[in-house]
């Protein structure tokens, strides 16, 4: 009998979560001041914050998102970007909220979703 490695089940579930919206009711919209995550875009393209502030992200869609530093769906390290999760990116299921670490270095930074390459956010720290 053919045995399927358990890891393949996990890969299949992740792929399914990225492609199929959540079967539960739609989450509430992101609160004022938070960055919402819709199906293929953030609720704003650019945000300007003061040095030392954090950014609140809310997955107000029925889709899985993996957000972190980068552009056009390609995650990467970007000097000055605060921690964005245990492995440099935050895996966000529908309805979840994530608060970035404080942005301590002035400059322009880029955040993207590795599952939705057209989902990009510019963070300007003054």
Structure summary:
By secondary structure, the protein is mostly beta strands. The chain has one helix at 6-19; strands at residues 35-36, 46-49, 56-58, 65-71, 74-75, 90-92, 97-99, 107-113, 120-125.
Task: Give an overview of the whole structure.
This protein is mainly beta. It has 1 helix and 9 strands; from the N terminus they run H-E-E-E-E-E-E-E-E-E. Strands 2, 4, 5, 6, 8 and 9 form a 6-stranded mixed sheet that branches. It has a 3-stranded mixed sheet with strand order 1-3-7, with no helix packed on it. A hairpin with a 2-residue loop joins strand 4 and strand 5 (74-75). The longest helix has 14 residues, at 6-19. The model has no long low-confidence stretch (mean pLDDT 85).
Low-confidence stretches: none
CATH level-four homologous superfamily name: Cupredoxins -  blue copper proteins
First-last Cα distance = 62 Å
Rg result: 16 Å
Number of H/I helices: 1
Mean pLDDT: 85
CATH T-level topology:
Immunoglobulin-like
CATH second-level architecture: Sandwich
* Domains (count): 1
Q: How is the biggest beta sheet arranged?
A: 6 strands, mixed
Q: How much of the polypeptide forms β-strand, as a percent range?
A: 25-35%
Total beta strands:
9
Query: Residue share in helices?
Result: 10-25%
Q: Tell the overall outline.
A: globular
Order of helices and strands: HEEEEEEEEE
Decide which structural class fits the backbone.
mainly beta
Look at the structure and give the CATH class.
Mainly Beta
